[in-house]
TrEMBL record:
Signal peptide start and end residues: 1-22
Pfam family, one: Cu_bind_like
Region feature (Disordered): 150-190
Protein name stated in the entry: Phytocyanin domain-containing protein
PROSITE patterns: PHYTOCYANIN (PS51485)
Domain spans labelled Phytocyanin: 24-145
Compositionally biased intervals (Pro residues): 155-167
Gene3D superfamilies linked: Cupredoxins - blue copper proteins (2.60.40.420)
Keyword Transcription assigned: no
Length: 220
């Protein structure tokens, strides 16, 4: 019996070790959702504070629960964010996930935004000519490498295997602004994610069969 519990405990530990690195879905603002109180002329919660209490990685999702009165704009351009206005923004660095719909202010909207680019990601609502953003309906997240992008978020699909190029890899590419033609996610690397997952799985399976081997003599 003791062996059985040891096996179960080890299996649970292995399982949790894997879970700790799983991709996360973060509900923006928690139960408050993504809203603005027009009476108070303020966002319903402190989104900057909310964001600073979390750790974000590639492949995680931000879930915005809102309605037709608010928009969700994502940008990688700090100027666009600071201006609370994306009229002059480039299509390549700014995305409208949901726009204000004046005809359906009461319609509930749920938007899932995958984090596909490392570094600073900015989010704001452009509603009320930017006043919502100016008065708090905005936040910034620093996206870390996490366990890399899952293949489901690499679009278009990765190109076929090519012979390694003799030219040395240029690491500085990760720090300069994104190529204007690259869709989100394409300039992020997924190396590591497969390794992490299979390593965790192998460790789990190894532990499982090892525990089983210990267990069998007890049962028969
Ligand atoms: C996270 O959100 C995405 C997009 O809505 C969904 O496909 C995925 O199943 C969610 N994952 C979890 C763990 O809830
Ligand atoms: C709300 O705040 C904005 C910016 O701080 C200000 O320009 C505007 O007059 C305020 N509106 C109301 C109704 O108080
Ligand atoms: C950021 O956006 C502003 C306009 O909102 C634009 O003038 C500027 O060139 C952009 N910066 C970059 C690095 O794309
Ligand atoms: C939507 O915004 C308008 C003013 O812009 C306000 O009168 C109305 O109550 C809001 N509706 C909802 C459901 O937030
Ligand atoms: C992604 O990884 C490949 C090798 O797998 C490398 O050549 C490339 O420079 C990396 N790109 C970035 C942006 O790190």
């Amino acid at each position: 019996m003791e062996v059985l519990w040891t096996a179960v405990a080890l299996a649970v530990i292995c399982y949790n070790a894997g879970e700790a690195h799983a991709y996360q879905n973060y509900t923006v603002g928690g139960a408050s959702g993504w809203f603005f109180d027009a009476q108070k002329n303020a966002s319903v919660t402190d989104y900057t504070k909310w964001a600073s209490s979390q750790t974000f990685g590639l492949g995680d999702y931000l879930i915005f629960n809102t309605n037709g009165n608010h928009s969700v704009i994502q940008t990688y351009n700090m100027t666009t964010y600071k201006n609370c206005n994306f009229d002059d923004a480039e299509d390549s660095d700014t995305f409208v996930w949901t726009a204000v719909d004046p005809l359906k202010p009461n319609t509930r909207v749920r938007v899932s935004v995958p984090l596909t680019i490392k570094g600073a990601n900015y989010f704001f609502s452009s509603a009320m000519d930017g006043i919502e953003c100016v008065n708090g309906l905005k936040f910034e997240v620093k996206v870390g490498a996490g366990q890399g992008l899952p293949s489901s978020l690499m679009h278009p699909p990765p190109p076929p295997y090519l012979e390694p190029s003799p030219a040395p890899a240029d690491d500085s590419a990760a720090n300069i602004p994104r190529d204007a033609t690259a869709p989100p996610g394409i300039d992020n690397n997924n190396s590591g994610s497969e390794i992490t997952n299979s390593a965790v799985l192998s460790a789990f399976l190894l532990q499982f069969f090892f525990s089983l081997a210990l267990l069998l003599p007890n049962l028969y």
